[in-house]
Amino acid sequence: MTDWFARGKKVLPGGVCSSTRLNQGLGAPVYVTQSEGAHFTTVDGRRFLDLCCGHGAALLGHGHPAVRQALHEAADLGICCAFDTPRHIELAEELCRIIPCAERVRFTNSGSEATLHALRLCRAVTGRDLIIRFTGHFHGYHEHTYIGGHPPASELARASQYRESPGIPEPLTQFIVALPFNDLDAVEQTLKRQAHQIGTLILEPVNFNAGGLPPEPGYLEGLRELTRKYEVLLFFDEIQTSFKKSAGGAQQDFGVTPDICTIGKALGGGLPLSAICGPGVLMDRFKPAGDVQHSGTFNAPLPSILGGAAFCRTIGESTFYPELLAKADHFYQGLDALISRLGVPVRAPRHGARFGLLMGLKETPRDYAGALAHRRDLMLEFVRQAASRGVYFHDYSGGPCHHGFSAAHTRGDLDQALQVIEDSLSEMKDLFSTHP
Q: 370: alpha, beta or left, given left = phi > 0 and alpha = psi -120 to 50?
């Protein structure tokens, strides 16, 4: 691993193609030579049980047979770059059937692309430029939403002005209103003052990017009522929540239908595919039906579309979600039991096949400000401990974030994960009483 890291740094900034691939808990990226099902193997021959699962993209597991077959089929069809095909239409029809808010679909490759173009559409439809977003939520790396998402505690009071990377022009902060999650009053007061300027309210229905924080009872319903009252578009960013508990995503799980949504991560079966979904009255503003631009040579390449079709066929099998959710029940019951048995302050909020591990907390926080009490030092040590025992957790710089399992994980795999989690936390038990 060390030799490859040294070589990588000579030709790739930081030795990686994506900033977060440097696992700070391990001190290096994990370079993989083979992945299959619930496992992957690294360049130094170590085989890991994967509890990252492509950050949620590998819901079927790595290299699912149906997705492999889709790649062969795409090759046989000639890849067909920069054309739509009947397969694009068929997959869009299936998504319109299973996603509650979907009457039309526009495919993109990444989640960042999806939210970028969807927000352009929202602004065109409403004629209003300001966006309400919530601290702790993530909506892609583009300039329009990489503001106010994950400020440090010292910047929470001015979260709307907090730019999450150098290179984002300061004037773009004027279009962001960053509020705390699970606080309906904050939303209502803001809309009372600025509804004439605010066109869109965007959120993760489950705040996975702050550790998997759930919406409080009535919260999503309250947002739906307020956005209708003030004629603001309700935008569920379901790049992460889509498919994790049901085919219809969080909007199906919680019974709240947004005006527009983005879905992705798992959609391509491990291949890059995301989508914008919404009613025809909104979506038909996209060119060539309307006047809002969304285009790209590599939008929805055929391999990804066929991977998405394979994914939808697989999750549409009658046994898929019952089996996935039975595994989830088994795993989470075991996780809660071992945390209780050890008596360590760890919280594990969850939704479907993904969950958080919030270190040093006795209660699950309701919002990002509470999640900031999560102990990064303990998370990084946990990543090291688990990896030494053959189970991979991604570190996300030690911050509060999400982990998960796939349909390819067997009960035996999950029992192995539980044993490693227990052994790792047990080894760390004394550290919980120390100050960071």
A: alpha
